[in-house]
């Protein structure tokens, strides 16, 4: 069972992102403040859940959360500021949109840029330890998947509806065959060094 809070009495916002390792599309983050009484035996790190379970959990999280918000950083911005800074920016944008200001922030991972004057705790594999971070991981993942599903409609050849922009064999093969789209991250190594883009 995941923990309800890190520090008793704090209004904690869990933060996580999705899409950091992708070759295409935005990085998406979520911030979630859950009531201390929130319980859900199914909620876990989004990577350990099936797609069906993630989408079943999303409306439960959104209904029961004290506050939740999504932050998005485009592939163009990722290319400008790098993926690490883009991940922090996406989390900051999510925190900006929260209707309740947290007294502390729980971040999945080992690094974070200070947000305003609010103290934060970096927790490695936090999405498998704290409910609020797990909830944020589910929202970030499902909202990003929604975006990639929409982009797939315009660029079906890249199979984003299945790979969501991650560097699968088929995705890389299509980049080699067709070149890049406006949604690809040009600062990433899109193909192995021995291969070249056709254009």
Q: What is this structure, in a nutshell?
A:
Helices cover 37% and strands 15% of the residues. The chain is an alpha/beta fold.
Explain what this protein looks like in three dimensions.
By secondary structure, this protein is of the alpha/beta class. The protein has one domain (12-153): Ribonuclease H-like superfamily/Ribonuclease H (Nucleotidyltransferase, domain 5, 2-Layer Sandwich), CATH 3.30.420. It has six helices and five strands. It is globular. Helix content is 37%, strand content 15%.
β-strand number: 5
Biggest β-sheet: count, sense, barrel?
5 strands, mixed
- Rough outline: globular
In terms of DSSP E residues, the strand content is 15-25%
User: Superfamily at the CATH H level?
Assistant: Ribonuclease H-like superfamily/Ribonuclease H
Q: What is the CATH topology assignment?
A: Nucleotidyltransferase, domain 5
**Assembly category:** single chain
CATH architecture grouping: 2-Layer Sandwich
Give the low-confidence spans.
none
Judged by helices, strands and strand pairing, the structural class is alpha/beta
Tell me the Rg in angstroms.
Answer: 17 Å
What is the element string, with H for helices and E for strands? EEHEHHEEHHH
Indicate the mean pLDDT: 95
CATH class bucket: Alpha Beta
Q: Number of helical runs?
A: 6
Q: What topology, given as strand order, has the largest sheet?
A: 3-2-1-4-5
Straight-line N-to-C gap:
50 Å
Considering DSSP H and I runs of 4 or more, what fraction of the residues is helical? 25-40%
Q: What count of structural domains? A: 1
